[in-house]
Amino acid sequence: MKRIRFALCALAFSAMTFMSCDKNSPDINPPPKNIADYIAGNPDFSIMYSALTKSGLLSEVQNATNLTFLLPDNAAFQNAGLDQNSINALSPAQLADIIHYHEIDHVINSAQFPIGDTITTLLGLHVYSNIGDSGIYINGIRIKTTDVQATNGIVHLLTKALLPPDFSIYDLVASDADFTLLKAAIDKAGLTSMLQNGGAYTLFAPDNTAFNNAGYNTVTDINNEDPAVITKIVKDHILTTEFFLSDFKAGLSLKNLQGDNLIVSLVPPSINLEGSSQPNALVTAPDVLGYNGVIQELDRVVLP
Prior knowledge:
This protein has 304 residues and is α+β, with helices and mostly antiparallel strands. Helices cover 35% and strands 25% of the residues.
């Protein structure tokens, strides 16, 4: 009888202990929060929270529905060169542009991100989505955590903040003294307007030294060349889709604007024309973003 009584008491004590622990322990899977509350309640997002507050967009996020937020944490902001002091120095309008560049007006979960295509953000500028060996990439930046559910949408955490571009890829080339010969070649080929306006292009951009090594030392040399030769050279360096460093895969074949195939090498990242005996053109400065595409700077002109 004592053993039975002891067993019953032990069982009751265990039940009480379990109930007590269950009552005081946090939920293993807490219910979703509003995106604004999710950001406000986590110190890892303090930079974004201060940006939302200063820009006046906190209530907009609070009241949004079906929102996809590509969320940089504090480390991701710092990876993009922004800390709290940088945020404090920006105007509300500048912060609003950065925030809207991270937002999409409909829900996209990890299975719905397009492969090799663009997505329009609330800023009105697109971002480029692709799938790499390590997951989903946006403008070449990896998403480190996907599908954080919220009551008014979904959150994906970035490894680096997205900075909205201010210039076209042509304007970036035209403003850089290292690309005067490439600018002259683009102008002679009649592709200025194309690279200055719409699209989602990749421009593999040889610098002046690369053109010098290919026999073009001055703008006059470019202008005196047969237009068909210059046009082919320029078109061989353009893709009609965006191609980031994260997209490089050894042996990948890319059809360029000329209709030729560029063959990709991974280590080091480089390209060459299919069948060319020339050395590979190495990427020396990757992922320079314009609002209509991306520039990959090269150390050689890609030639047959």
